[in-house]
Amino acid sequence: MDNTYTCIRTYQPKPGIGAIELARPAVLNALSLTTMIELVSAFEAFDADDTIRCIVIHGNDRAFAAGADITEMADATMMTMLQRDQFARWERIRQTKTPTIAAVSGFALGGGCELAMLCDMIVASETAQFGQPEINIGVMPGAGGTQRLTRAVGKAVAMEMVLTGRTISARQALAAGLVNRVAPQEAWLAEAFALAGDVAAKAPVAARLAKESVLKSFSTTLEAGLEFERKNFYMLFATEDQKEGMDAFVNKRTPEWKGR
Asked: Rounded to an integer, what distance in angstroms lies between the CA atom of residue 215 and that of residue 228?
């Protein structure tokens, strides 16, 4: 991996896991244009690495990311925002095929909340706070906040968060279905890596196609989604891992995945 980034750090905490750390603590990991460019590069590099089977993105104890870097947008016009096309980078991250986990401690606000929701799963510290406070500075969520938040927590909770800018706690986020699990403050990152290890231990091609199928349910009808699911299911019978997995099950041994 390229470790020459200025706003993030990449590393491998365990075999099969790629980690991306947001590393701008002085500004609570505000998502600058440079940060987003580097995030795209890191996600795509891990996604292209056959040895990486799950990606974890995290910040520090105080903040996952407290939002976009407002200093870069304060004087922008509609035309400069259109020409900048900053959300194209979010779309590239969304297209990551490898399963992804956001490990959140402290603030996940605005773009930070949207970045966490861009991942497949969220592990939260007890200190985590989620919110879309863009209304407080005269704008609204633009990187998926009105769409992914509503799909995760429902209209009532999403509408209140977006229209008032109020935050919800980790426990409230768990109850609303926004996060997968809440961990003690001293163990939130270890908990995320443990979940990533569980995912990384599974058949990687099956995991990618299963992720693809779950996400498809948000953009299609039930009938079309079922057809998509069946095609992915059938495709897995062309893989060596399907043969290995079923033989291991029949013979009561641990499978050895090859990722093909």
From this structure: 11
